[in-house]
Amino acid sequence: GQLEAAGRINPATYQADPSLRNLIDVSPYGLPEEPPQKTKPVIRGVWPGIEADDILLLWGGGLWMWLDPLTAIRAVAQLHDTHPRIKLLFPGTRHPNSDMAEFAPTHFADMYAYAEQTGLLDTAVFFGDWVPYTDWPDVLLECDVALSLHYETLETSLAFRSRMLEYIWAGLPVVASRGDATADLVEQYDLGVTVQPQNVEEVAQAILQIIESPAEKRRANFAAAREALTWERAAQPLIQFCQNPRRAADRQTPLGNNLPYYDAETAARRIAELEQLTQAYENGKFMRLMRSLNRINRRLRRA
Q1: What is the tens place of the pLDDT at every residue in 161-205?
Q2: What residues make up the domain containing 97?
Q3: What pLDDT digit, counting tens, does each position of 11-24 carry?
Q4: Mean pLDDT of 105-120
Q5: Are 82 and 196 found together in one domain?
Q6: How many domains does the structure of the chain reveal?
Q7: 120-125 CB contacts, 8 Å cutoff, 24+ apart
Q8: Cα gap 54→83, rounded to integer Å
Q9: Distances, alpha carbon 171 to alpha carbons 15, 39, 51, 186, in Å
Q10: What's 128's domain CATH number?
């Protein structure tokens, strides 16, 4: 839309490349070619209340207002009596930049209070702090299921969540709300289960479906997704442009011919409208009177 408004989508650029990828292309977030390697324990036996044989659900992002951690906690509450080994982890509970905290509110206070009220705090629901970057691969590898839940909003339809690619990198099955591009990846490669936004029952059943399935079931799926999403592949449009830089087709024309086609059409239409308006003025009573007076004036001068 911005390219159209700027006049960059025009006959010259379209004729040069109907896909318009010569004008704008996508180089998304990518993954390292090598999968992560376990180096040390960071959660099991480290966090109080987390045992070695627990089933760990990871909420890998923040508790931002456009995300839906409440549905995750309610799903765990629903499963807790029959599956007490299921533990939900929130490693990041505040904005990592303290200067931005007041501009980026989170659900943390409400979620903490809800977990406390339901008796799940530090038994089935655990809140931590941001994990050092070097420890993050170990966190991913220690967990069993990742959750990516959000509301149905405009942000959702436009979002591409980088944490989802980290789950793919680690081969971590995902329960994801439908509606964004990363949920499409889960469905495309069968990397987990997608659910309707804010549906507690679907989330609970999806968690059970994943933990009751053999890990080997999706191993090949994750390998295929990783191969398709490496930095080497993701950066190809940028690499190709750097290797073969070129000016856009509409920038190669003389300046005088660089008027976008719809501007030219608009100009022609306005000229026609002005001509019609001028003709209307000329045919009006006042103009006819003035022309008559002008003719009389010329006759009087000749006389």
Answers
A1: 889 999 999 999 999 999 988 899 999 999 999 999 999 999 999
A2: 55-234
A3: 888 888 888 888 88
A4: 95
A5: yes
A6: 2
A7: 120/73, 120/76, 120/77, 120/80, 122/48, 122/49, 123/49, 124/76, 124/77, 124/80, 124/84, 124/86, 124/87, 124/88, 125/73, 125/76, 125/87, 125/88, 125/90
A8: 10
A9: 43, 16, 22, 12
A10: 3.40.50.2000
Name the amino acid, one letter, at 27.
Answer: S
pLDDT at 286: 63
Nearest to 161 by CA among 71, 61, 228: 61
Across-strand partners of 244? none
Q: Is residue 73 part of a domain?
A: yes
Let me know how long the chain is.
303
Residue 147 tokens read as 């959750």
CA dihedral angle for residue 279, residue 285, residue 288, residue 293, rounded to 10 degrees: -150
Q: What is the pLDDT of residues 82-110, one digit of tens each?
A: 999 999 999 988 877 777 777 778 899 99
Q: Residue 169: which of 123, 205, 223 has the closest Cα?
A: 223
> What CA–CA distance (Å, rounded) separates 23 from 5?
14
181, 292: one domain: no
pLDDT tens-digit map of 130-148: 889 999 999 999 999 999 9
